[in-house]
């Protein structure tokens, strides 16, 4: 657990939630610091959506405590969240907008629900539509938009009122790479303006770029937590060496070396040597160069995607 009432905006302490025979969240504890981007990751069925639904009050925990903090560090329980003065925005994984209503009218409606005046909501919505190149489609029904553009409208509906905390469940869903980068920029802007962001997504490369703190859960329990540097330190492998060679010799023999955990041959012919945490790059490169006719070689940090696949795979009996 990290943070305290002084710097936290939410704390989750020993929270569990059971559905019939499935324990969706199992004695989970963490804190979200205000003004930061907190990434919640996990495989399908890990308990992420159940946790998010408890945070927004759709479901209640069977045990444990969820607390919200005001600017003075005073805590409020889930049932008294409104008294904390904390304004929320929520983008659900499954779209919750009215598909047969015009885009601008829909956004203004949600803005008013969040406490904005109608003129302010209309002005803010028009600004967001312009930024997303959708101004000319303000009068069209939502169902006429592509999946990606519908996701933009769903996103705007969650941030239109400039909430202090916004929860984004799979915000990059349906977006092409250019719009994923746009969303990434906007999420960063929200943080710079003081908004706390809870982000749940499967696009590990995007999460790695922007998250201040990462929590990986599986079967409702924490398996990795911390900054990206912390995650790398907790993972079984921190670095890798990628090399090519002239011959077709079997490089898996390198796995006998005590500093190499695993060797993998890629479809393009490159070989990846995954290193043990205490391995020294210079020593491993020397071993590879001595045993093989190497034509190219470089080192790289293990990505969040690779750490996730490796850690969750090994935990669930996978081969990685």
Order of helices and strands: EEEHEEEHHHEHEHEEHEEEHEH
| Name of the CATH class of the largest domain | Alpha Beta
Structural class: alpha/beta
Helical percentage:
25-40%
Q: What name does the CATH topology of the largest domain carry?
A: Rossmann fold
Strand content: 25-35%
Radius of gyration, in Å, reads 23 Å
Number of domains: 2
List segments where confidence is low: pLDDT < 50 over at least 5 consecutive residues: none
The overall pLDDT average reads 89
H/I helix tally = 9
User: What strand line-up does the widest sheet have?
Assistant: 6-7-8-3-9-10
- C-alpha end-to-end distance: 28 Å
* Strands, count: 14
CATH architecture of the largest domain: 3-Layer(aba) Sandwich
CATH homologous superfamily of the largest domain?
P-loop containing nucleotide triphosphate hydrolases
Apparent shape: globular
Can you describe this structure?
The chain is of the alpha/beta class and 320 residues long. The chain has two domains: 8-233, Rossmann fold, CATH 3.40.50.300; 236-301, Alpha-Beta Plaits. The protein is 31% helix and 28% strand. It has helices spanning 48-55, 103-113, 118-131, 147-159, 177-192, 204-210, 228-234, 281-291, 304-315, and strands spanning 8-19, 22-33, 37-41, 63-69, 75-77, 88-91, 165-169, 196-200, 213-218, 221-226, 239-245, 260-265, 271-275, 294-301. A six-stranded mixed sheet has the order 6-7-8-3-9-10, with helices on both faces. Strands 2-1-4-5 form a four-stranded antiparallel sheet, with helices on one face. Strand 1 and strand 2 form a beta hairpin. Helix 2 crosses helix 3 (118-131) and helix 2 (103-113) packs parallel to helix 4. The chain starts with 7 loop residues before the first strand and ends in a 5-residue tail after the last helix.
